[in-house]
Structure to design on (287 residues):
């Protein structure tokens, strides 16, 4: 089923993001995770794509397995940096044959990609979105950044580019992770004021440690509120204490988002089920 059809029902949707594993052991772990998360009947799962040029077809293969073997609705991430126009056409043919009708069109991060493997047919996600819409049959989504994309000079400039992506055919957006709901709601308001009318699914990730927190702030330029920072510092080194604190924080964030009218939740799982299950069970009130 197309994600856009689900979003049109007005029911809040729940989804999980996976990345393609690199080893046999990690593959087994991911499938165990998928078995657990299926118990929560997600509306869809998405699979990231390496923009580094290393085995980008793992994404398509994993999407096929998750759909055929697990019966999940799947969104395949595709990046400008990993694929030429010709490769995108071939991938789309393959996805169609597997009955996969959802894709998320992304640019990828140029600083992660060696010049010799980088594809150059598309410079920005909006161009990929336009081609994917021409190819037909796909519900196409895009990424957005409630604290602006790090390369953008201003929020206004970033939202103007986002509008171009939506005008090119992006039918829904998934946000970069964030830790302060006000930032999400302000962003959605600004996007709407700029004429962006598509659903904006908030991306949520529980923090798993002090180093991860520093990476997010430094690399992704995501703000960590004082209460979250203090909690992570307090529980650093105590795995169970940190897990509980992080899940409680993310659950409160999730509840606030859903109560405030977000169209659903997209949980970045890092291929693990425990935190995602605990958060969704908390918000859905399940035992
Ligand atoms: P774009 O929409 O192309 O925007 C990138 C930057 O260029 C922005 O600053 C934008 O304002 C600017 N811009 C856009 N159009 C123009 C223009 N015409 N002229 C000048 N500037 C312009 N990365 C991966 O490698 N694989 C994944 O699977 C993946 N999944 C992701 C999923 C989500 C939900 C999110 C939020 C990010 C994901 N990323 C992934 C990371 C993403 O690829 C990077 O954040 C990347 O830097 C930007 O991608 P984008 O699709 O938002 O790019």
């Amino acid at each position: 089923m197309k994600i856009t059809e689900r979003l049109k029902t007005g029911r809040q949707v729940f989804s999980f993001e996976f990345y393609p594993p690199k080893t046999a052991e990690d593959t087994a772990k991911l499938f165990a995770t998928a078995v657990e998360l299926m118990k929560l009947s997600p509306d869809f799962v998405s699979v990231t794509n390496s923009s580094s040029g290393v085995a980008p077809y793992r994404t398509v293969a994993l999407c096929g397995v998750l759909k055929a073997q697990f019966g999940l609705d799947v969104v395949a991430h595709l990046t400008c940096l990993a694929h030429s126009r010709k490769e995108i056409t071939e991938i789309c043919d393959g996805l169609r044959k597997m009955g996969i009708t959802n894709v998320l069109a992304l640019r990828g991060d140029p600083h992660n990609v060696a010049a010799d493997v980088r594809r150059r047919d598309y410079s920005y996600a909006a161009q990929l979105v336009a081609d994917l819409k021409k190819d037909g049959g796909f519900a196409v989504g895009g990424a957005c950044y409630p604290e602006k994309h790090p390369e953008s000079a201003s929020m206004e400039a970033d939202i103007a580019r986002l509008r171009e992506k939506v005008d090119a055919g992006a039918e829904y957006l998934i946000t970069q992770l964030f830790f302060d709901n006000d930032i999400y709601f302000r962003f959605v308001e600004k996007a709407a004021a700029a004429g962006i009318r598509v659903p904006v699914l908030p991306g949520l990730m529980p923090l798993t440690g002090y180093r991860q927190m520093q990476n997010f702030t430094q690399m992704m330029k995501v703000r960590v509120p004082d209460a979250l920072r203090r909690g992570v510092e307090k529980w650093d080194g105590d795995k169970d204490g940190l897990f509980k604190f992080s899940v409680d924080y993310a659950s409160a964030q999730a509840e606030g988002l859903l109560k405030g009218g977000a169209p659903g939740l997209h949980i970045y799982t890092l291929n693990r089920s425990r935190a995602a299950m605990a958060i969704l069970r908390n918000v859905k009130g399940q035992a």
